[in-house]
Design a protein that fits this description.
It contains six helices and eight strands. The protein is α/β, with parallel strands linked by helices. Helix content is 39%, strand content 20%. The chain has a single domain, classed as Phosphoglycerate mutase-like (Rossmann fold), CATH 3.40.50.1240.
Amino acid sequence: MDDPGKDGHDNATTGQDPPMRYVELRRHTDNDGDRLTPRGAADAEMIGRDGLHAPYAAFVSTGAARATQMLEILRHAAGQDNIPIILATGLRSPVEDRWREAATAAGKGADLDAIRAIDPDLVERESWLLASALRQVVDGLPEGGRALVVGHSPTSEAAVLGLAGRVVPPLGKGKGVLLTEDGGDYRVEPLG
């Protein structure tokens, strides 16, 4: 019997509805080259204290050292050091320089629509490719499972666009979105 005091959204914040799958997609914190700065490591530790929704069925990195380093900090904070970090190199674009050039031309704080105005081919093709890699992460989760993915901007936003069909605002360092898969449909919301 349905509880009249609840609606279909009451369990959405727990991330534990059995038929659904969840992906927390975060941008790495502050970095210098391919390593987190001391501030970036401290910010990752703060996210680990206040921003996790453990337990996670998977920890996924793009393969960049800064993304893996952040995941190591978050995995430890979640108390799940026994879960291996999976490398999903398909979530990292092979044309990062082209992304940088298009984003620079689009202007500071440009979202994917602005980047698409500069290089529509890039956004269309890469969104499809990155979404395919993100879909593999989702498909690899058990029902009700949750993954924590650390990646980059604007390629994480492009993966969301390709998979969920939504343009999300540019992700600041350490920020992210929650992607919820429900029977092949995807919802996206900011991570708190």
